[in-house]
Amino acid sequence: MAVLILAFMPAEKTIGQTIKIVYLHGALSRAGMVGLMAGGLLGLAYLLRPRPLLARWTRALTLSGWLYWTAHFIVSMPATRLTWGPWIAWGEPRVTMTLQVIGAGLGVIVVSWLLGSERFMAGANVALGAAILLTAIDTGVLRHPLDPIGSSPSTTLRFT
Q: pTM for the whole thing?
């Protein structure tokens, strides 16, 4: 469904068909954030009431959130190149934050797997979920718009 929507969306006035890559980048970013924060919430639930089902869910949500978050960074590279010039906008605070979350998430996933402790994994997932929430709130922008669709004057964009 998402592929069809992206395929048939009209070009944007300023950046043309590149807008489709930008939309995909934004969707992957949001999905990654939601996955990592949900993994953190279920990690907290596991710490309060240790249940194998909660451990499986916190692990799965954190891993899938991290994969979506990493995919959003990869997809952002051609969008960055086509709109701003460089492949990676190193001076953009959101890029730094993204790479920090990718690194921290990889560390949490690998160390949790190596230790094999569900309690450690749940606690680390709580910390990672809280970290992405706090850094997303606190990280500023230089050129990167925070919510280009929601702040657009176009009712068509806000509807999609």
A: 0.86
